[in-house]
Specification:
By secondary structure, the protein is mainly α. The protein contains nine helices and two strands, in the order αααββαααααα. A two-stranded antiparallel ribbon has the order 1-2. Strand 1 and strand 2 form a beta hairpin. It is globular.
Length: 226
């Protein structure tokens, strides 16, 4: 797993290494519960352990990793409150980007291409590829804002979402019905129906949050009964 990270160029700061690890989490290469070995990561990324520890501090502040005394650092496994916080942020920034962002023809073409990927992934029954397309679509939505600050925030949110998605491995149809919702969102944007698109997106986010929370509650109940 560590060999997939590859050496990081210009890795001078903990913040840079944090961005590398965050991207690997968002890409599904580092999964919940994985132990992050200081020795292996230092060698793979070509950085000192002190720099790596700085990165862990950044990621711990973002709830991406958990530090467990006498055991080490592990990729986080988000719980119900983490999901609620993720969706609080998403409800604030994504509908706003839809309402007031710069939906250029180029941006909409890129979204169309993402939808095509999602449809192909659903036809092939590929849950990881559907998840990738979903992440790309919502990243593109926030990019309409033209704000680097919001895009950076969304990158963190998407990394957290990837960790949440792992909890839905037992529900492969979770992503499939959001493919159509994403397609509807893009269609409304292309038609210039921004208010309708924003309202639909808010409903979408509410439904996704409720579904995730329901799944986590069910999983917790099963664990308590076992």
């Amino acid at each position: 797993m560590m060999s997939m990270l590859g050496p990081a160029e210009h890795a001078h700061t903990g913040a840079w290494i944090a961005s590398v690890l965050r991207a690997r989490i968002a890409g599904g290469q580092l999964t919940p519960g994985s132990k992050l070995s200081e020795h292996a990561l230092s060698a793979a990324l070509g950085v000192s352990r002190n720099t790596l520890r700085e990165a862990f501090t950044v990621l711990a502040g973002e709830s991406m990793v958990d530090r467990i005394p006498n055991r080490g650092v592990f990729v986080a496994s988000p719980g119900a409150e983490d999901v609620r916080e993720i969706y609080r942020v998403r409800r604030m920034i994504e509908p706003a980007a839809v309402l007031w962002g710069d939906a250029t023809s180029e941006a909409l073409d890129d979204m169309d291409a993402i939808i095509a990927r999602a449809l192909a992934a659903r036809a092939a029954g590929s849950v990881p590829d559907m998840a990738d397309a979903n992440q790309s679509l919502h990243k593109a939505v926030v990019a309409l804002s033209g704000s680097q600050t919001l895009e950076t925030l969304m990158a963190r949110v998407l990394a957290q979402m990837r960790l949440v998605f792992h909890s839905m491995a037992a529900a492969p149809d979770f992503h499939s019905h959001y493919v159509d919702r994403n397609a509807e969102l893009v269609a409304r944007l292309k038609a210039g129906s921004r208010e309708e698109a924003a309202a639909g997106l808010r409903s979408y986010l509410d439904a996704a949050e409720a579904e995730l929370l329901g799944h986590l509650e069910h999983a917790d109940s099963r664990a308590a009964g076992s």
